[in-house]
Amino acid sequence: MRVEEIKPYSSEGEKARQVEEMFDSIAPAYDFMNRAMTLGIDRWWRRVAVKMVGKSQPRRILDVATGTGDFAIGLYNKIHPQQVVGIDLSQGMLDVARTKVVKHGLQDAITLQQGDCLALPFDDGDFDAVTVAFGVRNFEHLLQGYEQMHRVLAPGGVLCVVELSTPRNRVVRWFYDLYTLHIIPWFGALKSHDKSAYRYLPQSIAAVPQGDDMLAIMREAGFKGCKVRRMTMGTCSIYFANA
């Protein structure tokens, strides 16, 4: 099944609306669950991605599916661009992100707004870098999302996508499946009271294009120099490309 067909609550209806509802529901527990699901390693994955983006010294960065704002804040604190713009479908997640931005005193540096990644409300070539952390598998239409990100990037701008992936090693995969298919859904339902959200997670990870398949979609959207860096025994992949 294609990742666009994997939906949090029902096979009927738009995926985008269901994803928005899901993240609104789990927003208060999201950060805790993110740390628990990845055993805290997601922080390191973000730091690696930020370092990769920083090499191009972008002045304006768009963080798509910004969620609770951790990646946007990390990008600003490390790279110090003129501005970081974070966009997300979920108002609940953005509310959490705004609290963090205010706590860090970054209201003038980081702008947060609600919006659809498939119809980005920005002009062509507006940004020097576009980032997505753990978000592309939630896109209603993956290719369209990449095309939109390519459109808003200036020529030569960089794209960095951090996404969960499935390990190739069979032994590692056995433990990974046990953890993601059984432990995480049980613990997620206990913490967030949304059983469907944490059943959707491993299903969407398994279905999202990975490795060369993901790179092929990026190239189809117009990106060049596409490459992937696998992290932590293949449980995370960082994709990088130029507009």
Would you identify the regions where 5 or more consecutive residues have pLDDT less than 50?
Answer: none
Query: Number of helical runs?
Result: 8
Overall geometry comes to: globular
User: How are the strands of the biggest sheet laid out side by side?
Assistant: 3-2-1-4-5-7-6
Q: How much is the radius of gyration in Å?
A: 17 Å
- Tell me the β content: 15-25%
For the largest beta-sheet, the strand count, sense and barrel status come to: 7 strands, mixed
Q: What's the pLDDT, averaged over the residues?
A: 92
Helix content estimate:
40-55%
Give me the secondary-structure category.
alpha/beta
The overall strand count is 7
Head-to-tail CA distance between termini: 29 Å
Reading the helices and strands in chain order gives HHEHEHEEHEHHHEE
3D architecture notes:
By secondary structure, the protein is an alpha/beta fold. The protein is built from eight helices and seven strands. The chain has a seven-stranded mixed beta sheet, with helices on both faces. Helix 5 (142-152) links the parallel strand 4 (127-133) and strand 5. Helix 2 crosses helix 3 (70-79) and helix 6 (170-192) runs antiparallel to helix 7 (195-207). The longest helix has 24 residues, at 15-38. The relative contact order is 0.16.
